[in-house]
Structure formats: C-alpha cells, structure tokens
Amino acid sequence: MWDKKFEDLLRSFLPFLGADEPLAEDATLRDLGLDSLGIVELLAALENVYDVRFQDDALGKETFQTPAVLWKVMSGLVAEQAA
User: Fold this and answer.
1) Tally of structural domains, the chain
2) Which secondary structure element, helix H or strand E, spans residue 7, and what is its range?
3) Which of 1, 11, 24, 74 has the fewest Cβ atoms within 10 angstroms?
C-alpha cells in the first residue's frame, strides 16, 4: 500500500471521491474526476513531493489508470533514482 502523503496528494486531484470514502487500489482515477489537466498537475506535484522525474515510458495513460498502478510506477521511480 502507499504512504499517506501519496494518498493525500492524489485525493486533492479526485473531486468525485468523498473525503470520508476509502480510496480503493483498483479505483479508476478518471471515474473519480482525474482529467487530462489534472494528470499534468498531479505529475508535477508527484515529481516535486517525491523528488523524482517521470521518464517518457511512464507518461502513458496506463500509469494513471488506478492508484495501485500509479503508486507502483512512482515508488519504482523513487527506488530507481535513489540507487
């Protein structure tokens, strides 16, 4: 599972997810209100908060399908860029 700052940041880009609703690992982010502009803003926010850079191969819409997929890609970047 992801850390609290990831969930808090992600939730700020999901207008259709209630504050008291759990964020399911397999929830479709687009269904929760993440649009194209939100993806760009979320990407920039993740890069700033986690001090990583998303590579071109991680910028596809598949990366932003669900919280679990996004966390897997993002945490992989953190580990890769820390090495």
Assistant:
1) 1
2) helix 4-11
3) 1
User: Chain centroid to CA 37: how far?
Assistant: 13
75's tokens: 């945490």
Please choose, from the candidates 54, 24, 51, the residue with its C-alpha nearest in 3D space to the C-alpha of residue 39. 54
For residue 44, give its domain range.
Answer: 4-18+25-82
For residue 39, CA distances in Å to 11, 20, 83 come to 12, 23, 27
List, for residues 4-21, the tens digit of each pLDDT value.
Answer: 999 999 999 999 999 999
What is the full DSSP assignment across 8-34? Answer: HHHHTT-TTS-TTS---TT--TTTTT-
pLDDT at 14: 98
Give the residue from 49, 5, 58, 12 showing the smallest Cα distance to 34.
Answer: 12
39: CATH: 1.10.1200.10
